[in-house]
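thread from #wetlab-drylab

HS: before we spend reagent money on co-crystallization trials with iron/sulfur cluster, can we at least see a predicted complex? here's what I'd submit
DV: go for it
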Amino acid sequence: MASERQINVGGVLIGGGAPVAVQTMTKTETADLQATMDQIRRVADAGADVVRVAVPRDQDVEALKTIVRDSPIPVIADIHFNYTLALKALDAGAHCVRLNPGNIGGPDKVAQVAARANELGTPLRIGVNSGSLPAHLLELEYENPVEALVAAAVEFVQLMERLDFTNFKVSMKSTSVPNTIASNRLLSERIPYPLHLGITEAGTKWSGSLKSAVGLGTLLADGIGDTIRISLSTFHAEEEVKVAWEILKALKLRERGPVLIACPTCGRLQFDMDSVVAEIEQRLEAYEDPIEVSVLGCAVNGIGEARHADFGITGAKDMGMIYSRGEPLKKVPTDRLVDELFAEIDRYYESGKRVVRDEASAAEARAWLAENEDETAMTPERIAALEAAAADGEDDVPAADPAPVRLDEEISPVTGRRFTRA
Ligand code: SF4
């Protein structure tokens, strides 16, 4: 269930039906201003809505003042163990402070941070990690780790409410994908506050992306989760942002830049599609519009499932074809496919988002497609043609005079056939 409450992190709305916000965390030493700001600019360019920086020392708080001032996106200060750093981060202008009420030194310390955040109108993120649950929940964690996580989160929420502080979001992270899914489902039914989703210590770029896609994707598809962070073992925080966007784009929750569709290839492939797809993916990064671009390894199925794509290519050994929205545009030598594809995409934008079609080139491409596709393949176009032909055939049969419906007969509303009533 989507969260009812909404918070405002430096102008980015989180929860209450706002678009799911993408965040990441810098991997630099925060006090190294040059490196941290460079990384923040890179993640902002990649589409991060907010960025978190670690603040473990006083020199990081000092740097935070400049970072908050110069960052193109809101900055969250990540604090552990030291409530005075949380107070200093709030005073440094952080747009949000993340803390774990369980390790900050007790309720009175949490109260001081909440009071200062209230004065400044700054939201907090309160977080629970499976690795650092309060001591009284350790037995429950052993028996039921999901209930233990949820119980810890609910206790912290109740503490914040007792302190009259409700300007917060909640995160509950586990290294286990099933536990993350189950606990966030439960928590979303118990509290109205925005939820920050993540799989903690998810792993490498490859396995971590998959775990995050499964865990976060499942929750997001249920409408649970208001902001996400993909945690990957990489020094390039922008990679986390790209993965987050792919998850949101796949679920059609947000749009950003082109969508690339590519066939998985098989034994019919006759050209180096791997490098072609990689080059197209990289060149598409220069476009902001959410156009759909498709790459098919061969023409066996015609344009088939890619016929809704704004632009696409289908290749063969020496020749390939460029098409748009199911209609061929032109045939080109395989080694020029990518350049010509981008020439067509650029022409589309130069013409005010209009596909420019040269009829002679399109006819030539159509002929090439007809020669190369498998005549026996049941493409959507062929199925549609067969259905149309079948419908025409039925229309050609002269309708017989229907015999009057007898008293013991009825006409089925589904098949139109008559049947005798029992
Ligand atoms: S489009 Fe061609 S190469 Fe790609 S998976 Fe289908 S049959 Fe194979």
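DV: The mean pLDDT is 89.
HS: ok that's useful, forwarding to the group
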